[in-house]
Amino acid sequence: MTVFHLLIYLSVLIFLTAVAARIVRIVRMPVHLRWELYPVPHEKSRSAYGGSILEEVNWWTKEREVDRIGEAKAMVSEIFFLKGIWEHNRGLWFGSWSLHFGLYLLIGELGLLALSGFLGAVGMQPEILALVTPIVTILAWIGCALGLIGSLIMYLKRLTDPKLKPFNNASHYFNLLLLGAINVTGLIWVAADPEYAGKLVDFFAGLFSLNALPVLTTIGYTHVGIVLFFFIYFPFTHMTHAFVKYFTYHDIRWNDSPNVQGGKMGIEIDKLEHQPVTWAAPHVRADGKKTWVDIVGDTGEEKKS
Amino acid sequence: MSRSSLSKQPKKVTDISVPSEQLAHVDPQDMFPLPPPYDKVKEQPGFKALSAETRKTVAASLDDTVCVGLPQPKSKEEEERLITAFLSGLRKLFTRENNWTFLEPLVLSMEHCARCQTCVDDCPVYEASGKNEIYRPTYRSEILRRLYFKYIKPGNSLFNKFQNGDIELNWTLLSRLLELSYRCTLCRRCAQSCPIGVDNGLITREIRKLFSSEMGITEKNLHEKGTIQQLRVGSSTGMNSLAVKDNVEFIDEDMTERTGIPIESKWDVEGAEVLLLHNAGEFIAWPDNPGCFALLLDAAGITWTMSSEIAGYDGVNYGLFYDDVQLARIAAKHFEIAKKLKVKKIVMGECGHESKALGVISDRVFQGIPRETAMSLIADIVFSGKIKFDPSRNNFPVTLHDPCNLVRAMGVVEPQRRVLRYLAPKFREMHPHGVRNYCCGGGSGFAIMSQYNFMDWRLQISGRKKFKQILDAFADEDPSAETKKYVCAPCSNCKGQIRDLFDYYGAKQKSGLHYGGLVELVVNAMVDVKEGFLNFEEM
Ligand code: SF4
Ligand code: SF4
Q1: What was the pLDDT predicted at A124?
Q2: Is A160 at the interface with chain B, CB within 8 A?
Q3: Shortest Cα distance from B207 to chain A (angstroms)?
Q4: Which phi and psi (to 5°) does residue A166 adopt?
Q5: Peptide bond preceding A41: is omega within 30 degrees of 0, i.e. cis?
Q6: What is the ipTM of this complex?
Q7: B142 and B72, same structural domain?
Q8: B199 C-alpha to center of ligand 2: Å?
Q9: pLDDT exceeding 70 applies to what percent of chain B?
Q10: Quick check: CB of B115 below 6 Å from ligand 1?
Q11: Pair (B36, B150) in one structural domain
């Protein structure tokens, strides 16, 4: 095991821990009041026009039909085709799609490499592993090319579009440069090194088996270095929307779950309502000890005033 | 002069903290043109100038208008006190004790906006203003977001600045942010188009909540005259139960005479099938609406009642627009009353925000009594076969306004359309409609706000898109006032705004535009009702 091994493990560890911490933090957030936004795609037969079960007279006596396929379709069109941007911000769509789709392909490449590296480490025949190399190469070519085009377009847009400009922070430019750098180094590497995929398969096998890593070209090391930096940096940025989007959609926008009596949600809400309130406005009449239940029940002052 | 040279707007987000007499100005020429005969810029009312006294005494440095009217602090110390209180509220806004109700949506909206501006062009306020920067859905959100990363979110401050920019919290920012939180109708159209799931409408509401719940700074129509009065007297209209009963008695008599069907409204009937909960504004401004409900429910053989208890005859819940405590207090009252009366369900009258507050927002907190919207019940009655209709009685052009709270926030889209397609032969949609509708411009309580010159703002800016939509919907009809046109707006707040829009632009006289609810059209088409119940001359 070398320092390079350690550096890579550490980066991956930071990435995984920080991403997990963010997810745990979100999952542990208190249940909120209903705040769904229609259309909700799991509303079977109604989602096409944005309807809900609340349209039914005596809706609580009707069976709630939840259409998970509809939900999956909505997710696929949003994740892979950025439907929201297509419909509401067409001018930004191609750059954004190209950037995102390029990244998906690179994530696919990474996944494939990790799998083959693991299989190599546990003794899978190198000839069989060699089968993945053309796929890895194709993914790298297309992924990096799309990613590069996307990051360039987005960078130019950020620089020139008066709609975007006043809201850009330094990080928006930096993030695009970073993604651009990943893509451009990746592209040069795959173009210049005929053994690109083979070396990467060996590289991952070395990572899993703690054996020596193959020697990479300078551009290869540069690429790996930038990718490792991205791993450490990403979880602390708004780019985490990549996975937080799951929660903004499922937990909020599409979350129409009622609080069924005797259910888990009811127990949690009961606890939340018994927390003390410290809002300071006079009409709240909180004293730091009174709970939500006490405060809500206390409308007496108004009668006197 | 070019349009852009007329408007005045901030160039950077941070300009919010820079003292100046007025951060933004919208000239009538900046606003998109309305169809004829409302297209002449010279005839546009513009904004009545705020008096020197107003500018001196209240915070008025945001734009051309004032909504809240926060008094100017008298000393530097008072300024500091307000800033300290604001910071304390900001902290509480992100605690689970004080804000479990909306913590997750708020935090996720704070931390994950990509600043892609995909949401902005979908905002009717931003569009109507000629795209003035301060009305961008993301402008006020970005201010709160920067404050959040500066003061609340743990972490390295340099890194936070690099990621999210910086902002200076001072009195100028505070007073402008307060006003700015009352330049958004909370329609959530922008939230619908955000690919990440960030909700700028919610952020606006949370800013209002911070000011209200921590600092006691509120818009008086929502608070003193709204929720406080409702809990004290019984209704935000100021009517006590005696007054409302009196009004309803009169409505019953009038309806009996005009329809030929004896009507007697019911009060406090234990064990009724339905507790009918109207927005009490109906009893005063649109008495035909509760009258028609009484007639229709009787005709359908449904046992129903209204409640004369405090808040029991007023479904309004302005807490929805600014304060969770007030929201919960009123919702609790409504549930308590329904339980006491042992009704089978609450039917929320034609009021969008009431329906959302009681039907959806309170759903996880208060239980035991099911609630449904009037739309569902009306459609059920109309198609039950119990009542005979003659749709030709509604043979005039009708279009439908979709109240945001009913449609975008509840998914109640089709029942009202089914009724109109059956009972209004000349029904046509606005575009866009349904869940992609535009707000009437009176959302979030604006419809009841006319202080200072705020009326000019809500009718020319926030209501502009709706007015244009209405005119466009009738573009294929004779444009003159000879042809009476009906905008069906099944929501009291929306009706208030549409009434004011039509008055402001003289639309009744110029274009024959009238408005009303859904149930009035249903009753007008009932064969058993005397013909000519809907009388455009009296509307
Ligand atoms: S709120 Fe959503 S659409 Fe608007 S800028 Fe942020 S991420 Fe983009
Ligand atoms: S909620 Fe409506 S009014 Fe407010 S910013 Fe969004 S689109 Fe505009």
Answers
A1: 78
A2: no
A3: 14
A4: -65, -15
A5: no
A6: 0.95
A7: yes
A8: 9
A9: 99
A10: yes
A11: yes
| pLDDT tens digits along A184-230 | 999 999 999 999 999 999 999 999 999 999 999 999 999 999 999 99
Residue B38 backbone dihedrals phi, psi, to 5 degrees: -110, 20
Which of 3.10.290.10, 1.20.950.20, 1.10.150.530, 3.50.30.10 is the CATH number of A3-30+82-236?
Answer: 1.20.950.20
Structure letter (DSSP) for residue A235:
G
Residues of A in contact with B117 (CB under 8 A): 89, 163-164, 167
**Domain extent at residue B119:** 3-215
Chain B positions in Cβ-Cβ contact with residue A82 (cut-off 8 Å): 195
> Closest Cα partner for B468 from B31, B6, B29, B164?
B31
Q: Model confidence over B40-75: pLDDT tens digits?
A: 878 788 899 999 999 999 999 999 999 999 999 999
Our count of domains for chain B comes to 2
Long-range CB contacts for residues B526-531, cutoff 8 Å, separation at least 24: B526/B295, B526/B296, B526/B299, B526/B387, B526/B388, B526/B389, B526/B390, B527/B388, B527/B389, B527/B390, B528/B260, B528/B261, B528/B299, B528/B387, B528/B388, B529/B259, B529/B260, B529/B261, B529/B295, B530/B258, B530/B259, B530/B260, B531/B393
Query: ω before A214 within 30° of 0 (cis)?
Result: no
Mutate to test the pocket of ligand 2, among B109, B120, B193, B204 (most ligand atoms within 8 A of CB): B204
Q: Report CB contact under 8 Å: A277, B97.
A: yes
Are residues B326 and A164, on separate chains, in Cβ contact within 8 Å? Answer: no
Residues B23, B29, B35, B38, CA torsion sign:
positive
Do B316 and B207 reside in the same domain of the chain? no
Closest ligand 2 atom to residue B126 Cα is 8
Query: Is B188 found in the same domain as B232?
Result: no
Domain membership flag for residue B59: yes
The CA distance from B347 to B358, in Å, is 10
Same domain as B534, residue B401: yes
Q: Is the same domain home to B241 and B205? A: no
* Residue B307 within any structural domain of the chain: yes
Report CB contact under 8 Å: B142, A87: no
Dihedral angle sign, alpha carbons of residues B258, B264, B268, B271:
negative
> Which amino acid is located at B373 in the chain?
T
Judge: A55–B413 Cβ closer than 8 Å, yes or no.
yes
CB-side exposure of B233: number of CA atoms within 13 Å? Answer: 17
| Residues B62-79: b if buried by 16+ CB within 10 A, e if exposed | bbbbbbbbbeebeeeeeb
Q: Does A28 touch chain B (CB under 8 A)?
A: no
Check pLDDT > 90 for residue A127. Answer: no
Cross-chain CB nearest to A281 (options B104, B214, B364): B214
Tokens encoding B152:
């609340």
Is B222 within a domain? Answer: no
Domain boundary residue among B215, B242, B272?
B215
Is A272–B96 a contact, with Cβ atoms under 8 angstroms apart?
A: yes
Q: Is residue B108 part of a domain?
A: yes
Q: B216–A283: do the CB atoms touch at under 8 Å?
A: yes
Q: Are both B270 and B156 inside the same structural domain?
A: no
Q: How many CB atoms lie within 10 A of CB A232?
A: 15
The reply to whether B15 touches chain A by the CB within 8 Å rule is: no
Partner B, chain A 100-159, Cβ-Cβ below 8 Å: none
Residue A17 carries which side chain, given as an amino acid letter?
T
Cis peptide before B432 (omega within 30 of 0): yes
pLDDT tens for B291-343 read: 999 999 999 999 999 999 999 999 999 999 999 999 999 999 999 999 999 99
Least CA distance to B107: which residue of chain A?
A26
Residue A301: is its pLDDT beyond 60? no
Task: Collect all residues with Cβ–Cβ distance below 8 Å to A128 and sequence separation of at least 6.
Answer: A119
